[in-house]
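[job 0412] stage=complex_fold ligand=glycinamide ribonucleotide status=START
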Amino acid sequence: MKDMFKNSTSKEDKVQVALFGSGTGSNAETIIKTFKDHPTILPALVVSNKVDAGILNKAAFHNIPSAVISKEELQDQEKTIKVLADHKINFIVLAGFLLKIPSYLINAFPNKIINIHPALLPDFGGKGMYGMRVHEAVKRSGASKTGITIHYVDEVYDHGKVIFQRQIKLTPSDSPESIAQMVLKEEHEWYPKIIESLLHKG
Ligand code: GAR
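[job 0412] stage=complex_fold status=DONE, emitting structure tokens
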């Protein structure tokens, strides 16, 4: 008899991805939409440190389980690891997550935590450099280009090995707001593609 399940992958066999974010969650939503019906990658959990973050509404809208882990709770190794284990998470994607990832989590997920930064690291990175602050700094500097960086997460802010960068040319008429828009568009295009290239062993 023809094995009709031969090519299907059970939920358990998929790479179960947790999306961590503190804000709007537009990247998380793009990733959720891309992988909702993917054969080997599953957006399995959304985690936010902020109870009122937009990313939690996006998770609810798409029926993805979510958890709030406060700044203090993130220091609680047992509690955080349990939340991730309960959802069988084996990869973590940071999408606008503003807290530093503690060492225990980096050790528990070696080379399995990635981040997106809205500029060309190592420029315009480091503590306190997030969201509009980055674009304002780029504008102030008079830089002729900005871009996006996708990188592995290590114990230093915005420091781990770079996986992918994409440049965006700037003109003097660009404002922090227009820079933000161009950057977000590139992020939405490239973050899902890079995640697939890292995780899909098809
Ligand atoms: C994104 O632009 C992301 O690169 C940035 O926060 C934004 C989140 O937007 N991350 C950082 O600045 C990290 N240092 P989103 O919540 O709409 O995806």
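Residues 1-7 have pLDDT under 50 and may be disordered.
[job 0412] exit 0
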